[in-house]
Amino acid sequence: MRESRAPRQSLLERAARIAFTFVVLNCSAVIGLWSAMTRKKVWR
User: Distance between CA atoms of 10 and 31, rounded to whole angstroms?
Assistant: First the structure.
């Protein structure tokens, strides 16, 4: 059976998850690029 939530809310939740994933991946990429350019070990 379908949930009683409105389709608009589930679309908003999906967009929020995608945006959060995008922000986290961008943050990781920036940290990785910075550590590669400065040759520092960030995660050790």
Answer: 32
3-44 per-position pLDDT tens digit:
555 566 788 899 999 999 999 999 999 988 888 888 766 665
The residue type found at 10 is S
Domain boundaries, the chain: 8-44
- Find the angle CA(29)-CA(30)-CA(33) to the nearest 5 degrees: 85
Which pLDDT score is estimated for 21? Answer: 95
